[in-house]
Amino acid sequence: MAKISIIGAGSWGTALAVLLHNNGNEVTIWSVIPEEVTMLREKRQHETKLPGVVLAPEIDVTGDLKEAMTGRDVLVLAVPSPFTRSTAHSMSEFCTEGQIIVDVAKGIEDNTLMTLSQIIEQEIPQANVAVLSGPSHAEEVGRCIPTTCVVGAHTKETAEYLQEIFMSPVFRVYTSPDMLGMELGAALKNVIALAAGIADGLGYGDNTKAALITRGIAEIARLGVKMGGKLETFSGLTGIGDLIVTCASVHSRNRKAGYLMGKGYTMKEAMDEVKMVVEGVYSAKAAIKLADRYHVELPIIEQVNKVLFEDKKPADAMNDLMLRDPKVEAAGIRWE
Fold first, then answer.
1. Annotated catalytic residue, options 3, 66, 106, 189
2. What stretches of the chain adopt beta strand conformation (E)?
3. Other CB atoms closer than 10 Å to residue 158's CB: what's the count?
4. 189 a catalytic residue
5. Which residues of the chain have a pLDDT value below 50?
6. How many CB atoms lie within 10 A of CB 222?
7. Which of 129, 46, 21 is nearest to 84 (CA)?
8. Phi, psi of 174, deg, nearest 5
9. Which one of 10, 30, 211, 236 has the minimum C-beta count within 10 Å?
10. What are the pLDDT digits (tens) for 117-140?
11. How far apart are alpha carbons 183 and 180 in whole angstroms?
């Protein structure tokens, strides 16, 4: 049994608290929001973000960050990506040398272009930072619906330790040393999911979505490999696997926001309607900056940025994608 604190009490943090408790661990949930702490303590569920998923009486809930971190074997950082740096900064004074922090959010910081694990390592250099990613909507994990994920770490020992903690009959966990590739796939798939949602909102069909998913993972892998990620990662659970579920699922906030924009909502109106952090909006800007830095073409992500930030009509963006210059599908395959 491990002593684990979940730092962040949104839907994903709550679902992981249930999973880790069911695995026999001692679990505490921390939230910076007093009303959220009270709700979880008294109602034993997150009534707005994960209704129906009940916390066991043994799961503690606190608003005291020092209390949540002291004496813990593992800290699961589950705040939305825009709040990763500020939360990590607050955690730094209470983190002991070598304490494991597992980041489970997905995103890239817009102004620095750093991945979330890189942000945590900058703010908490004494921590042993790892990541968990894969096709894993909280609405299903919290209800013990089977899925598979990947834990990435700097050492095999840390990865295998976390694999044992998270692994269950409904949550199969693989390991990987490619933290960079995992995080890039996790962040950039949210941008492609916005495009898939926009296509749904425009009334397009399954063919359109399949094309966006396939060409989307090609864009993600093209940039990711150039940055140092491994191609195998982008064809795995944290690449194409996570992309498929985020583009197709009714639980996907990124797909829903895109759908609303396809229906005519502005970006702000769509984000207000979703009522949760739409992380693809933040990652979209970062992705274009990375494309410029590494001289990589990202046509789908480029058009999503124009819809988000330049008021381009979604139908015009789709038309421009379709009418790009003809190309071969895979430049590495040649005629004899």
1. 189
2. 3-7, 26-30, 60-62, 74-77, 100-103, 128-133, 147-153, 171-176
3. 20
4. yes
5. none
6. 18
7. 129
8. -105, 170
9. 211
10. 999 999 999 999 999 999 999 999
11. 5
